[in-house]
Every structure is written in structure tokens, then in C-alpha cells.
């Protein structure tokens, strides 16, 4: 591997730098390692190595949200709202 001697300088908010450092430290990487990896992947894919489109956010209408049931500590959906194809109810404890 070639020697890493070229400098890239950028300015970020201190909190962003701190939180990002913690994230990459869990992977055994420094911020310099992370930036280098980002640049390498950008070259490999010919652009940003991730999708920049925002994730769609769920839209809830107040009229359709059921109030929390104190017996369960959360909302309990009626059986007729169960879509057997999605399997969501399969994970719920009754």
C-alpha cells in the first residue's frame, strides 16, 4: 500500500467529530482511516458510496392512531388490521 502523505483538511462541528470518532473507534478505525475508506469507495463506485435520497417517513393521521391501552402499555391493533402477508402480527405477544 502506498504511503498516506497527502493532507485533506475539512471543518466539522465538534460534536459531529466526536460522535463520528466514537462510531469508527468501535471498528478500530481513526477518522483518517474512515475518510480514506470513504474516498476509496467513492472512486470504486464513481460517486458517493451511499444513497442520498431521504428515507420515506411514515405518515400518521391522528384519527387513525389508537390510544394506548393501559393494560398493555401500548396501542393494541384490532384483528381486522392484520395483514397475514406481512407477518407483523406473528412477532407480537398476545
TrEMBL record:
<dbReference type="InterPro" id="IPR007337">
    <property type="entry name" value="RelB/DinJ"/>
</dbReference>
<dbReference type="Pfam" id="PF04221">
    <property type="entry name" value="RelB"/>
</dbReference>
<protein>
    <recommendedName>
        <fullName>Translation repressor RelB</fullName>
    </recommendedName>
</protein>
<dbReference type="InterPro" id="IPR013321">
    <property type="entry name" value="Arc_rbn_hlx_hlx"/>
</dbReference>
<dbReference type="GO" id="GO:0006355">
    <property type="term" value="P:regulation of DNA-templated transcription"/>
</dbReference>
Amino acid at each position: 500500500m502506498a504511503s498516506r502523505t497527502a493532507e485533506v483538511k475539512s471543518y466539522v462541528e465538534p460534536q459531529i467529530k466526536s460522535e463520528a470518532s466514537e462510531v469508527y473507534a468501535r471498528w478500530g478505525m481513526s477518522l483518517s482511516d474512515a475518510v480514506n475508506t470513504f474516498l476509496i469507495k467513492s472512486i470504486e463506485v464513481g460517486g458517493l458510496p451511499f444513497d442520498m435520497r431521504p428515507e420515506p417517513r411514515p405518515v400518521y393521521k391522528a384519527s387513525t392512531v389508537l390510544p394506548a391501552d393501559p393494560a398493555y402499555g401500548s396501542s393494541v391493533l384490532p384483528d381486522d388490521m392484520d395483514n397475514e402477508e406481512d407477518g407483523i402480527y406473528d412477532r407480537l405477544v398476545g
